[in-house]
Amino acid sequence: MQEHDSASSRPVGTALMGTERHPPRPTAPPGDLTTAVTDPGRELLTVLARHLPRIRAAAGPNDRDGTFPAETFHDFGRQGVLGATVPAELGGMGVSGLHDVAVALLRVAEADASTALALHAQFSRGITLTYEWRHGPPPTRELAERLLRAMARGEAVICGAVKDHGREVTRLRPDGSGGWLLSGRKTLVTMAPIATHFVVSAQAPVDGGPTLLYAPIVARDTPGLSVIHGWSGLGMRASGTLDLAFDNCPVPAGDVLERGSVGAVSDASLAGQAISSVAMLGIYAGVAQAARDLAVDTITRRSASPPSAARTLIAEIEARLYTLRAAASGALVAIDELSPRYDMDPDERGVRMMTPFQCAKLMVNELAAAVVDDCLTVVGGATYAAEHPLARLSRDVRAGRFMQPYTYADGVDYLSAQVLGLERDNNYVSIRATRPPDSR
Amino acid sequence: MQEHDSASSRPVGTALMGTERHPPRPTAPPGDLTTAVTDPGRELLTVLARHLPRIRAAAGPNDRDGTFPAETFHDFGRQGVLGATVPAELGGMGVSGLHDVAVALLRVAEADASTALALHAQFSRGITLTYEWRHGPPPTRELAERLLRAMARGEAVICGAVKDHGREVTRLRPDGSGGWLLSGRKTLVTMAPIATHFVVSAQAPVDGGPTLLYAPIVARDTPGLSVIHGWSGLGMRASGTLDLAFDNCPVPAGDVLERGSVGAVSDASLAGQAISSVAMLGIYAGVAQAARDLAVDTITRRSASPPSAARTLIAEIEARLYTLRAAASGALVAIDELSPRYDMDPDERGVRMMTPFQCAKLMVNELAAAVVDDCLTVVGGATYAAEHPLARLSRDVRAGRFMQPYTYADGVDYLSAQVLGLERDNNYVSIRATRPPDSR
Amino acid sequence: MQEHDSASSRPVGTALMGTERHPPRPTAPPGDLTTAVTDPGRELLTVLARHLPRIRAAAGPNDRDGTFPAETFHDFGRQGVLGATVPAELGGMGVSGLHDVAVALLRVAEADASTALALHAQFSRGITLTYEWRHGPPPTRELAERLLRAMARGEAVICGAVKDHGREVTRLRPDGSGGWLLSGRKTLVTMAPIATHFVVSAQAPVDGGPTLLYAPIVARDTPGLSVIHGWSGLGMRASGTLDLAFDNCPVPAGDVLERGSVGAVSDASLAGQAISSVAMLGIYAGVAQAARDLAVDTITRRSASPPSAARTLIAEIEARLYTLRAAASGALVAIDELSPRYDMDPDERGVRMMTPFQCAKLMVNELAAAVVDDCLTVVGGATYAAEHPLARLSRDVRAGRFMQPYTYADGVDYLSAQVLGLERDNNYVSIRATRPPDSR
Amino acid sequence: MQEHDSASSRPVGTALMGTERHPPRPTAPPGDLTTAVTDPGRELLTVLARHLPRIRAAAGPNDRDGTFPAETFHDFGRQGVLGATVPAELGGMGVSGLHDVAVALLRVAEADASTALALHAQFSRGITLTYEWRHGPPPTRELAERLLRAMARGEAVICGAVKDHGREVTRLRPDGSGGWLLSGRKTLVTMAPIATHFVVSAQAPVDGGPTLLYAPIVARDTPGLSVIHGWSGLGMRASGTLDLAFDNCPVPAGDVLERGSVGAVSDASLAGQAISSVAMLGIYAGVAQAARDLAVDTITRRSASPPSAARTLIAEIEARLYTLRAAASGALVAIDELSPRYDMDPDERGVRMMTPFQCAKLMVNELAAAVVDDCLTVVGGATYAAEHPLARLSRDVRAGRFMQPYTYADGVDYLSAQVLGLERDNNYVSIRATRPPDSR
């Protein structure tokens, strides 16, 4: 068995510095999501740092009351944060690396996970619209540019509305004059209180053909659109998560993005799904980090020596936190690497993005929840008060397993199919469209 | 709640390639220990690749019989592998990044963990002697250069002998004419069957002062040195792990490295301890990878659909394997970054190396064992035969928790003391020297 | 390896019934807390069954609003439930086996854990006062009889008030005329909204001697006593858990129970601590059972086949639920066995009660939380709404680890000290009294 | 929150004994498999106790060499142990409760798990043959009586041979004159070195009908039967587990038991499968207990205080061991209760036996392995020697997951189908017969 002696002892007087030659090594260590690796990423962190104290102070009350921190987001708008992921040439801050987006979300989530979750919606939208602006057909590019410029000015706040409410399917049908009419109801739309637009997942059945998938972009003041208050979450209660109802909302043809068809098994779509969601790993890393910091702070203030179980749990907490940050960072860096690889087979690129994301997501969800739980155990009964920060974190951290893509069950299906070479439609929007309504 | 629509759908005909502008991102992604990031590292992988089939074929029989693969190591010597971590200017291959050392060990461990464990001893020695050659006092530099040149030629094979056998402490005493006499017994000396030299941890009590720690380098043919066969491991059975006895072995003064004193609490020594051991994480990642590959291969050959539990376990295996590789990679890259930072406070540098290493080690040990166990469960009863490769892997993987530094218990003490700001002597050689013999 | 053929096949026509001789076997199988094993226990279940629908219906709203179900408890009083554990000769229902108490609490907790937790306070009080009535000195017997008779009539509702609020210690000092004055503040007093009396843990420093521990019984209308609303829990929100303040409350000498002295290491006290708390294991078993039933009910209503992960998790849920019920049942039966064993050494009796209780408590807490978490995962995102029953159960179940005796950290200390033969004061009231206030 | 004061304090001088009235409670507490609950069970423990020192002493060498302890079994034969489960009226010891069989196996497994595993084959055979003797058709009763009487005299040692070797199916075909000819190969036949008879699972295809399942009982000296040495296990290496080959072995019609047909979904067969295997839970409980005792013994001998991680792990070990014993005990008592219930619907009886067994088996396998692993971690590197008792236990304990019925994957399928009401053939002999050979 290998055991080692130390090589670091130095006779007194040995010069520490010298003309070292040492090998090339990764210039930007993946680190553990500690800091941004690009200039725009660093700029974003600097701007956000000014907001963190207020975000942290408001986290408790907003959680208790389920209040969305609208004023924080208005300040974000004024200072360019809502356009952080808009390209610089369109007036944005130009953060395009998901690693750096995740670091920013981690910092915000340490102060308040709900704020980070809502902010992610906007950051993610900037990145996916930038893709449309660069690669879409001309009308889409025009639409994307208009929206991105408005985001950069802090004038557009754009939410995704994906999940149907109950058993009803949200549908788009031709209005007879080249446009569309949208009807249905969506649930779990985050950042909705201040949204100016919604990107809505919708189906349009075609006679004799497959059901087509679309994403109409609907302005908030569109006739027939109503925002429905009512959802109250176990956690993430200040994320402004609401329902939307559409009653024959008119949508111009130019405001509708095509999203393929149901059952068209294409792994290429995995790329967009991974890109638009992977940065959320930073949120759960931030929640775990905040819990760990609270626990350590509490224990070190105590005058008694920590008991055996506290030392053991603190070591496990530290190791798990380190590991979940490494797993998330690995997935983020891998996806950032693959993102510009349009030379690759699109299906392969999609899979090579989604697989590390799903591996990391499964473990981040498990480890972050374990870290927070152990922090409550270490600190003790005081954490069982509704408004104790650790109680809030223990509710917030549980959101991770329900984030798309995928849930735990779908993640198991995806990963096992991938590893074992089984057939599977990996497009979760398509999967959901084909499931019975009671199993979506 | 944030759920997302896909941005990857593209209208047919959209050009995939374009003149992209995308932000700087880490040029050498930390990845997941998939490949080397330096030229010497890549060269080492190329050379090793030629040996892997034979190593893999011999793994089973050598494990059964407890036979060290001496011929493989002789070939390693002829092809420069035993000098892989010797600087190029001394005739070696010049691999100096621990990340790349770990990737090489991972590859070998996929074929046979015992071979990788033994090889690590030599790789680690190359790195620590290079440090002595660059930073030691003149006599030490001379000694180090001599040994390194011999390693590069495949003529020197140098083992560490750290752990005392039983309750006896290995001691060095002056021979009265400027040299030393070494007596004691060491256990768990890996790669011993082909060793030409041993670096032995020893104590020298000083009247009225603290006990000093030394590391005499003892040639195999030194009078009084005997190699004692007898240890038979639960796993890692082909690693050539033996005991050594020293009966007043003469050691010249110039062949003795100073190692500080017992109880001199210095975190600087953590750097050398981390550097000399962290690459072993690659070994356990390799064992887990080999188990996963065997399980996947077996399941995909079966004609029946995999049962629910197999799909769930395969997904968990994939996610855990990904995560343990990410954790190990993160620690390796961090230590490679800090390795040349002689500008830093030595204590801080030591801690900043050891902490990520211990976090990664704790989790790699846990996750790698879980991966292998689940692979046995998925494959079924056939794995319960002594010579099934998965049975071997399940024995090999359990060595990780006993590797220095630290065991699980000491790792918990180290990490919790670090996090909570408790006083602790972090030098495990010193710790061990002060413990009762029955608790080392 | 042992594999077995089936012995149950029967040739057609074989008579199934016969004149069997079979060996004696345990007449009352420990079962898994499925049903009561005594007549009074069965009677209690029958009475409770009538209340369960209303308790279940009120669970959600009461949790949301933090409302104590006072009307339910008034009905309990009218129907003798509040005197369930009062001896029949004093007018009570005569349930004296903790196994049956736990089964009753399990049933109630399936409907609402908060109600069960509050009810436990009364059930436990009946049992401990019965002990005082049987074994106390004459004045204590008289006091106990008076209170027990009032409980049986539904007129006395008696809470424990153990934990000091903040850093202040609740103290008893002589009033100069043979009685006492009580001052201090208690937190986490359950069932307080309807309490008629409080049993308060207090200290009385003695000049030159050890601090003595007392438990004054204080009527709600005592001058100087105020009930302080304000605590809002992460879960168990309808349990009526409040703070109490005592400002020189007069307490007659006859209403004060002696509780030994700080630091008087006596394992005999473990018996009372185990007896007064072990039935709470039934509450957490009930929470886990309710979560499992909700998850199974939801999955079986879905039209799609359950995915692989759902089948795996459902099997794990079933096995863990079975196991935690078996562990709880084992501890309850063991304590019921030892309860009348006054022939034994009191210290040994205390340890032999507390050890299985702590083993079961540690695992019930772990397994019940895992069961509930997995149920949320299986059912999906709908459970993440604040008022989803599974969200409530996931908050309620986490109370278990903070219940006395012991917390996880103290449980680890107790069990390891017991197993390894280390010295330790096992009286948690005494332990707490000697700790710095910030570590209690 | 409920916290409790202690009720056990007693004023000095209070009489401890009194004329107690306390309620009925389970007379034979299920306990935790500590001791037998029937007279024959206690007698068996007494006889076995005399053998334990030798069994314990031989465990290490027999494991190393893969030697079956034939002499121990010869002594068992002389002292009636091999007829322990034979009815007293046929000359046996008359142990018929599975709880007591499991306690006996637990005791033996604490000394040597291999011996216990082999002994289980004989104990189980006694119980299943007793069933045939009582309920079979007249020729079967006669056969069963003859074999049982021989077991009681120590002259018959009867192994099960269930699992086919490789892809070949063991088949029975008519010999043309009323008897049968048996051909095929079986693997993993435990206790084979001393077997006098083998009960072989075989199929007989019928033209135009379902494949019928039979269990011919084949004497060791039957022409065409050969015992094939060669299997060497990861653990359970002294259990005498071998392969058997049958080359047209003649079997008289009267020596063949009918076992239903492939695909005849009948839950009644679960009863026999549960009865014949559930006592093996005692073996894994014994392995875990032995590991715990070794670890505790080692730690308590050390002069240093146990580190934090050791205290935490020891507490976890104690709690898990307690819990796995409780789970096993619960399943055993439940099956003993149901065993004589021929009044019940046979399908329901089968399910009500198998479900607790599978719940307990899943958790016993998980918890016992965790206990043993943690024991190695606590004790340290010394346990990594091939012949360290804890190394042996860590190999032995892993057999549990491969024991029939069921493997982990089949157990998940069974339990989830049961809980969710899914269709499934629960007869594992039938399941295996219908699977592709590469997935059995």
Automatic annotation (TrEMBL), chains A, B, C, D:
Keyword Oxidoreductase: yes
One term of GO molecular function: flavin adenine dinucleotide binding
Ranges of residues in domain Acyl-CoA dehydrogenase/oxidase C-terminal: 280-403
Superkingdom of origin organism: Bacteria
Acyl-CoA oxidase/dehydrogenase middle domain residues: 171-249
Swiss-Prot/TrEMBL keywords: FAD, Flavoprotein, Oxidoreductase
Stretches the record annotates as Disordered: 1-36
Gene3D superfamilies linked: Acyl-CoA dehydrogenase/oxidase, N-terminal domain (1.10.540.10), Butyryl-CoA Dehydrogenase, subunit A, domain 2 (2.40.110.10), Butyryl-CoA Dehydrogenase, subunit A, domain 3 (1.20.140.10)
One Pfam family of this chain: Acyl-CoA_dh_1
Requisite cofactors: FAD
SUPFAM superfamilies in the record: Acyl-CoA dehydrogenase C-terminal domain-like, Acyl-CoA dehydrogenase NM domain-like
TM ranges: none
Domain Acyl-CoA dehydrogenase/oxidase N-terminal, residue spans: 59-155
PANTHER family: ACYL-COA DEHYDROGENASE, ISOVALERYL-COA DEHYDROGENASE, MITOCHONDRIAL-RELATED
The family this protein is said to belong to: Belongs to the acyl-CoA dehydrogenase family.
The protein, known as: Acyl-CoA/acyl-ACP dehydrogenase
